[in-house]
TrEMBL record:
Keyword Flavoprotein: yes
Pfam families, per database record: FAD_binding_6, NAD_binding_1
SUPFAM superfamilies: Ferredoxin reductase-like, C-terminal NADP-linked domain, Riboflavin synthase domain-like
Statement: the UniProt record of this protein carries the keyword Flavoprotein: yes
Superkingdom of source: Eukaryota
Residues that, per the record, bind FAD: 64, 66, 81, 83, 91, 134
Single GO MF descriptor: oxidoreductase activity
Protein name according to UniProt: CBR1 protein
Domain FAD-binding FR-type stretches: 5-115
Amino acid sequence: MKPLRQFRPFQLLAKETLSEGGEDGFPVRRFTFELPSDCSLQTLGFDLGLGDFVQVRPPAGRVRSYSPASPVQRTGSFDLVVKIYPGGRCSGHLDSLSVGDQAMISGPAPVPWLAYTLRQQQHVGLIAFGVGITEALPVALSQLAKPFDSVEQVVLLWGNRSWKDTFWQEELQEMVQQYAGRFKLVYALSREDREGCVRSRIDQSLLQSTFETFPRSAGFLVVGTKQMKKETRRALSACGFFSPPLLQMKLRMPWNWRRR
Ligand SMILES: Cc1cc2nc3c(=O)[nH]c(=O)nc-3n(C[C@H](O)[C@H](O)[C@H](O)COP(=O)(O)OP(=O)(O)OC[C@H]3O[C@@H](n4cnc5c(N)ncnc54)[C@H](O)[C@@H]3O)c2cc1C
């Protein structure tokens, strides 16, 4: 099968709710789409460790991007994990699909600057807001797969309103155990006190304490809305971390990066 350069129909095999969402929260569902039995995201050219994503074209509304959330080597199917917004054109479209229905999907679409940001970084900080974990987690896994003398520590800070908004707790716990000492996971809940979690928004003081041991030249990936990313980068800068070389990143963007 050729890479998904153009939009093509993919059949929905399964749909499962991962989180109903807390108060004021929205549900998060996993959608499993069919691939030919001998085909995986990897054979289609995806590198999830570098943030490659798919695009979904709803019948009405704008094309939207989603980070595949299943192992890149899995043959026969792939998952998207999507937060369903009320009135959301694309998330609502996906949510309206029944098993057996098709969605128009293309990919891989790249995050061109990520390879540059992570290049030769021994300390990698990943900051994910809500469903942004779908992009951050494969990046964490791919960094941890590198030898210790290449990547020493990966810290994932995951911000949600409440525990009910979270999912993949078991998978994350397994990672903490498997990469003990190299992988640190911090859950930040803005509206709930809970043992093992920090009660806080993701702000300068939380960033300072979470990444206290990181050298100021560490590499960071922030995944969330534009506003969240902007505020977090500003806070990282205020903590003394180097802000990403934005100018260089933009110059490296391929012609179609704005389609995201
Ligand atoms: C590279 C990349 C990867 C992404 N990966 C994922 C992923 O794996 N899973 C996923 O769920 N999303 C992901 N997104 C976000 C996704 O592309 C859409 O922006 C999102 O699904 C909303 O699109 P929509 O058409 O449903 O909503 P729209 O029709 O654009 O918006 C309708 C209403 O929904 C609400 N809404 C939309 N977005 C938000 C928001 N972020 N917070 C609060 N309310 C909102 C607003 O009230 C808005 O008025 C990713 C985005 C990028 C750029």
